[in-house]
Amino acid sequence: xxxxxxxxxxxxxxxxxxxxxxxxxxxxxxxxxxxxxxxxxxxxxxxxxxxxxxxxxxxxxxxxxxxxxxxxxxxxxxxxxxxxxxxxxxxxxxxxxxxxxxxxxxxxxxxxxxxxxxxxxxxxxxxxxxxxxxxxxxxxxxxxxxxxxxxxxxxxxxxxxxxxxxxxxxxxxxxxxxxxxxxxxxxxxxxxxxxxxxxxxxxxxxxxxxxxxxxxxxxxxxxxxxxxxxxxxxxxxxxxxxxxxxxxxxxxxxxxxxxxxxxxxxxxxxxxxxxxx
Length: 277
Hints:
mainly alpha
């Protein structure tokens, strides 16, 4: 694996993870939330992830495993790894306290509320601060496997990696808002709120580093196939569990659906452009 490919994959993962900082900045300086745009963009991100998972990643994983293990065992292995990826992210999701759910929709208008109004929703400032900390921790835990997914995809196919990194980055922006709002109102410190939001995104490149260090010594076509199928499962789960519900919460049903379809169309066209003539 050459240094340029690894650097590009890590750079894309870093970009996707640190977009939580963009969300935090928006919370401080934007005057109004464009909920229609958020609904479309979250749907778009889901469309990219779902299409590329089923059409490109899953099929490439199956092709690799069937060539290594034969048609029957390779197909079974692909399906098992796909659902194992779903199970992994589902277990992670289950371990996060529901009261600090980082995927609840937040808007920048919440920044105009007084500290007392925010505190009344969470009983006191300590509870509000705890909410922010748990939200940052929850997002960091969720971002870890997302980082591995982005890194692996970019390592195998840079064009695929760019599309997935953009999709993950879009979905990380509202998460930055979710971290910064309670931290800011519990401490009154914009810098601390931005820092927590920023650090929660660093779990994504951390996932890439851990994945590289742990898996690269054992990397083989079979390991790649299993990992790629698991990545597909992770991204499909994220789309249905996080992105689409958030898209509907930010806007009307049809906007999220239009965004979903647009994401699929753009991903399909981008893949077709790289088909050998």
